[in-house]
């Protein structure tokens, strides 16, 4: 009897335990530790949200993609059970309200999107996300009756796990609060960025990364009224929330500004009651369109950044300079509070949010009604692909001529518009069109958090007119597929050289061991004219490759490249195929420096460019052991932007110079150039700034609170400058005699006396963005891109980063030309 009772008791206990496990659990119960006691790995975060969705009728959980490291990208939809049953109608009615879907609707439901952990080492956000979803569905259900909350618990899983795994490996037990402890000092590159070391919080508009492009597809299906991006800042800054700082972009409505203030006051009520410090209206402005607060704002939402003290330094707890310990528990709690406060006020204002959201999309008072763009078809296709990601409408016109503001000339003018791309503002997303295409952003405040110019025509290298008239256009996308056929009887094939698509075609040929030439001079063959840089794939160079014609045609069709068949190598005009000016392209062995002293962002841009766009191999070499390697194993060395002052010493300079003299090629980008200034044989000198005001007494009388504003005279904050180009130099093949460069600072270098000044500024012409008066003076007669010959090799200088955030499309070909065309006098067998 006793045995039977024991069995019955165990059965009852087991049943109860099984039943309790089926119930909704708090994050702490599910994970086995209190939020803030540990950092949670991304897989466990995903498991918790799956659990919540399984156990609650108020949550559905979805996967919208994968990262480069194959981690899932996910989002939860949180609302009342009744709303979730009707969720597709709620979504469609929101889009109907703003004209993105056909039909009429007057929705009353607020849609709030909460994004966490876009920067991987700002890790308190994801911890707060788990706590916030639990609070919403267990205690704050009343708010969900008229509110849909979309929650992305981790925008950057790869970066988060990089940080969390590192921290868990090095932290002390119990954690050490000393600022100099290992756990508070991340090694290069840190966990902030994604796999390719891109800052995802600067990628919303450009969508160059898989996380961004996949997320934006879902975002545009919902078009939320509120979007919050949860961040962390320095350990001594308590908490920042809306309203944002000036400058506000001019399209931001009074309602958007006012509601930011309403939200800020609601947060303040909770923070004041707990005695938590905060600040508003400082640092974080609403201008640059590619942030997690500005992109949603320009799409009609109330876009906001919330910044909690902490960042990657804070760990589980750190001693601040103000004498208190900042803990992960505190950080997660603060983010939970502002998240809940945001949902609360959105619920209270749901009807007004819908009304004002509709107004944003019906305002059509624009100076420019249409942007008309012409240029290389590949560049047009790159742009339309971006517009497709954002669901922005466009078309093509048959107008013979369009007049208006000419972007290239920076004044009134006209272009031949036959077949031109037209993007007009008379569409629901007209405000975003204005922001992305406007010739010059209006600035009411020069002190900004990011770049002040990004104009699409300049970024993509297109001729453009901003027209005050609406230009009619056929909205049908005109896609063409090229289908080349092999012609074994010919002498070879010729292909143009104008875009990164052409470069990717060349790279693919080289990867398949097809020998390729390029011409350093213009020529004609069988009635067709070809410019410098044109590719030649000849029968004579590929005699040892069986069916080379078939391979070439297959690769050309894969890349949608048109091949011109050359029946003979005897040109109609200009150089023949065997000319010394028609040179074989090396299958270059490229090394890229990475690690301490290099900019992780610029290294990431280079890494991503070669792997994902050019698809050509590089060897990344860490600064930790670079000085020990044998450089003769490589043809090209790329030095990313960085601070090499303590790294490139005289012994390394001597080693590099000897390697260059033997035929090597160094490409130094941005601040990597500093190590070669005034060094013998490298030919690089800085422009000497004009002597400042000699009256140091009067300059020192500038009041304390005006010093920062006075200093803007020396700033260039991401501005676009017109530069002159030598199109006869191989590094400039595919360009004409002008290039619009995005200049990120006021650095200025002299023209090369014994080299080639390939792109340069004479009289500074700032076409867009902010540049201070002193900084402008310093740019007179300054280098942008140049080459100095050292023995048989070259030193290539790129003052402006041609790969900036991978959105400056028109700069990329300069880098390819520098690697494969510049000083290509000897073919390596």
Could you please describe the fold and organization of this structure?
It is a single chain. Strands 26, 27, 28, 29, 30, 31, 32, 33, 34 and 35 form a 10-stranded mixed sheet that branches. This protein has 829 residues and is an alpha+beta fold. Strand 3 (110-116), helix 6 (124-138) and strand 4 (147-152) form a beta-alpha-beta unit. It is globular. The chain is built from 24 helices and 35 strands.
Short summary of the structure?
The chain is α+β, with helices and mostly antiparallel strands.
Task: List the defining traits of the structure above.
4 domains; 7-stranded mixed β-sheet; 20% strand; disordered N terminus; alpha+beta; 829 residues; Aminopeptidase
Strands, count? 35
Radius of gyration: 29 Å
Terminal Cα separation, in Å?
90 Å
What fraction strand? Answer: 15-25%
Annotated CATH architecture of the largest domain: 3-Layer(aba) Sandwich
| CATH superfamily membership of the largest domain | Zn peptidases
Mean pLDDT over the full residue set: 93
Number of helices: 24
SSE-based structural type: alpha+beta
Helix content: 25-40%
**Residue windows where pLDDT falls under 50 for at least 5 positions:** 1-21, 691-697
CATH class of the largest domain: Alpha Beta
CATH topology of the largest domain: Aminopeptidase
């Amino acid at each position: 009897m006793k045995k039977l009772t024991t069995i019955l008791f165990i059965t009852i206990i087991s049943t109860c335990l099984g039943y309790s496990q089926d119930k909704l659990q708090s994050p702490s119960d599910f994970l086995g530790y209190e939020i803030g006691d540990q950092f949670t790995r991304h897989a466990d975060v995903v498991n918790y949200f799956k659990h919540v969705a399984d156990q609650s009728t108020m949550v559905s959980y979805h996967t919208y993609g994968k990262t480069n490291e194959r981690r899932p990208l996910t989002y939860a939809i949180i609302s009342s059970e009744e709303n979730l049953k009707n969720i597709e109608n709620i979504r469609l009615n929101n889009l109907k309200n703003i004209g993105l879907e056909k039909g009429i609707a007057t929705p009353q439901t607020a849609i709030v999107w909460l994004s966490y952990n876009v920067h991987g080492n700002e890790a308190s956000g994801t911890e707060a996300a788990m706590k916030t979803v639990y609070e919403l569905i267990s205690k704050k259900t009343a708010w969900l009756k008229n509110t849909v909350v979309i929650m992305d618990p981790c925008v950057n899983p790869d970066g988060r796990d990089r940080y969390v795994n590192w921290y868990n490996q090095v932290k002390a037990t119990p954690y050490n609060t000393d600022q100099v402890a290992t756990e508070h000092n991340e090694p290069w590159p840190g966990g902030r960025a994604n796999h390719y070391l891109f800052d995802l919080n600067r990628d919303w508009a450009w969508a160059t990364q898989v996380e961004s492009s996949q997320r934006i597809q879902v975002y545009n299906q919902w078009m939320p009224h509120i979007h919050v991006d949860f961040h962390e800042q320095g350990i001594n800054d308590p908490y920042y929330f809306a309203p944002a700082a000036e400058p506000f972009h001019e399209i931001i409505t009074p309602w958007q500004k006012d509601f930011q203030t309403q939200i800020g006051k609601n947060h303040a009520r909770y923070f004041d009651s707990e005695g938590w410090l905060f600040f508003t209206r400082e640092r974080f402005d609403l201008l640059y369109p590619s942030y997690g607060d500005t992109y949603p704002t320009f799409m009609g939402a109330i876009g906001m950044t919330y910044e909690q003290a902490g960042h990657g330094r804070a760990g589980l707890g750190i001693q601040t300079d103000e004498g208190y310990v900042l803990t992960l528990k505190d950080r997660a709690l603060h983010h939970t509070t502002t998240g809940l406060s945001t949902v609360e006020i959105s619920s209270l204002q749901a009807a007004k949010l819908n009304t004002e959201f509709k107004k944003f999309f019906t305002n059509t008072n624009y100076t420019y009604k249409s942007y008309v763009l012409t240029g290389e078809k590949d560049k047009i296709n790159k742009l339309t692909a971006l517009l497709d990601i954002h669901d922005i409408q466009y078309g093509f016109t048959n107008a013979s001529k369009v007049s208006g503001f000419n972007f290239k000339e920076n004044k009134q003018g006209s272009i031949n518009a036959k077949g031109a791309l037209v993007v007009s503002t008379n569409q629901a997303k007209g405000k975003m069109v204005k922001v992305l295409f406007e010739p010059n952003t209006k600035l009411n405040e020069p002190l900004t958090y990011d770049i002040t110019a990004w104009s699409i025509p300049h970024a993509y290298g297109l001729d453009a007119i901003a027209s005050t008239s609406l230009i009619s256009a056929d909205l049908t996308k005109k896609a063409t597929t090229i289908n080349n056929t092999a012609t074994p009887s010919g002498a070879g094939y010729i292909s143009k050289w104008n875009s990164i698509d052409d470069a990717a075609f060349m790279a693919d040929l080289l990867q398949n061991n097809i020998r390729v030439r390029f011409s350093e001079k213009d020529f004609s063959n069988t009635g067709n004219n070809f410019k410098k840089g044109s590719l030649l794939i000849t029968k004579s160079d590929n005699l040892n490759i069986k069916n080379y014609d078939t391979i070439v045609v297959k690769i050309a069709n894969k890349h949608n490249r048109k091949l011109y068949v050359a029946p003979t190598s005897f040109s109609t005009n200009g150089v023949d195929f065997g000319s010394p000016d028609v040179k074989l392209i090396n299958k270059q062995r490229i090394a890229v420096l990475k690690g301490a002293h290099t900019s992780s962002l610029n290294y990431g841009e280079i890494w991503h460019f070669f792997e994902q766009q050019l698809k050509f191999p590089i060897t990344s070499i860490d600064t930790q052991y670079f000085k020990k390697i044998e450089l003769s194993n490589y043809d090209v060395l790329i030095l990313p932007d960085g601070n090499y002052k303590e790294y490139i010493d005289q012994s390394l300079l001597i080693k590099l110079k000897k390697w260059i003299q033997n035929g090597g090629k160094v490409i130094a980008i941005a601040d990597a150039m500093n190590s070669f200034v005034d060094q013998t044989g490298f030919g690089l000198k800085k422009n000497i700034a004009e002597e400042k005001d000699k009256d140091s007494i009067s300059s020192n009388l500038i009041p304390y609170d005006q010093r920062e504003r006075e200093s803007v005279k020396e700033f260039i904050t991401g501005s676009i400058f017109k530069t002159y180009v030598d199109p006869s130099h191989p590094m400039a093949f595919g360009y004409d005699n002008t290039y619009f460069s995005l200049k990120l600072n006021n650095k200025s270098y002299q023209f090369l006396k014994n080299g080639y000044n390939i792109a340069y500024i004479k009289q500074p012409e700032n076409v867009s963005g902010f540049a201070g008066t002193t900084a402008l003076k310093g740019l007179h007669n300054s280098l942008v891109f140049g080459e100095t010959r050292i023995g048989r090799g070259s030193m290539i200088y790129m003052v402006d980063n041609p790969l900036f955030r991978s959105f400056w499309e028109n700069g990329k070909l300069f880098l390819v030309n520098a690697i494969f065309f510049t000083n290509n006098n000897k073919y390596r067998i």
